[in-house]
Amino acid sequence: MKTDLTTEVKGTGQYAEVNGLKLYYETHGAGRPLILLHGGLASGEMFEPVLPLLAERHQVITPDLQGHGRTADIDRPIDVRLMAGDIAALIDHLKLDKPDLVGYSLGGGVALHTAAQYPAKVRRLVAASANIRPDAIYPEMRVQQGQVNAAAAEFMKDTPMYRLYQRVAPRPEDFPRLLDKIGESMSKDFDYSAEVRGLQMPTLIVAADADMAPPSHYVEVFKLLDGGLRDGGWMGEGRPKGGHALAILQHEGRRHRTQWHFQGRACGTRGERALDPGPRRQIPCPLDESALPESVSLQR
């Protein structure tokens, strides 16, 4: 019987000394290791609603990234490449055997770079709401990002992000400094196309219609993984890296379009058009679903 998602799962919180950082992390459950990386101004607590389900089959590790949650900031920029090094060091610290890696937003960028920089340490990757170029973000969102700085702390005192930081951060007074660093990070130009193109492990790109970037950007990311480039047939003939499919995942009444990239063949349920859910149709599925991450299933 599946665990009720409202069931509380007790975890153990500890600190790991990595790269001059006292990195806080919690572990839940037992089984194949799964690391969950939170978004900006959040913490590992954001995954609490799904931890009971994931912990049934996984050893789930939820770190708090640099300057977030219970991990105090240090004298270095907020940079996904540096934080990827922290996650790689945590994998070594915990002696994990190629965990699956899931990241959302900021955590998605960290997950992507961990997989790109340390491919031998990651078995499978899920990057949700993780754009790979700043110019892909909607212009109005870029304007809002430009307003993230220390002065914004005063206006954020009634927000969940501020209350979380004041409740759990080792130095609650660092919140304005964190905003400054995040604002500086978001103001920089970057292009992670090469990193995405080089990924060889099974990779899931997750996007939805209320993201900071349009669905077309994530289709571009998908193409960098060789998705949608040629009609190779269900068994993956003639495709150098893998195939593609659109899976429709139902969660709390919302429909999220997700894309799988495999080294071989792919299957699932997809809409008639890539950017329009449309009528759903069935695709024969020669791929054993045991090849999918245990936390992700294809609805048929």
Written description of the protein model:
The chain is α/β, with parallel strands linked by helices. The chain has a single domain (12-291), classed as Rossmann fold (3-Layer(aba) Sandwich). Helix content is 25%, strand content 23%. The chain has helices spanning 51-54, 80-93, 106-117, 139-145, 160-168, 175-187, 193-197, 215-224, and strands at residues 12-18, 21-28, 32-37, 58-63, 100-104, 125-128, 203-207, 244-251, 254-261, 269-273, 276-282. The strands form 2 sheets. The chain has a 9-stranded mixed beta sheet. A two-stranded antiparallel ribbon has the order 10-11. α2 (80-93) crosses α3 (106-117). The two termini are 21 Å apart. 39% of the residues are buried. Mean pLDDT is 80; it is low at 1-7, 230-234 and 238-300.
Helix content: 10-25%
Going by CATH, the homologous superfamily would be: Alpha/Beta hydrolase fold, catalytic domain
CATH architecture: 3-Layer(aba) Sandwich
Shape: globular
Structural class given helices, strands, pairing? alpha/beta
Number of strands: 11
Radius of gyration: 19 Å
- Can you identify the CATH class? Alpha Beta
**CATH topology type:** Rossmann fold
**Average predicted confidence as pLDDT:** 80
Summarize the structure in short:
The protein has eight helices and eleven strands. With 300 residues, it is of the alpha/beta class.
Describe the secondary structure blueprint for this structure:
Blueprint: E1 12-18, E2 21-28, E3 32-37, H1 51-54, E4 58-63, H2 80-93, E5 100-104, H3 106-117, E6 125-128, H4 139-145, H5 160-168, H6 175-187, H7 193-197, E7 203-207, H8 215-224, E8 244-251, E9 254-261, E10 269-273, E11 276-282
Parallel strand pairs: 3-4, 3-5, 5-6, 6-7
Antiparallel strand pairs: 1-2, 2-4, 7-9, 8-9, 10-11
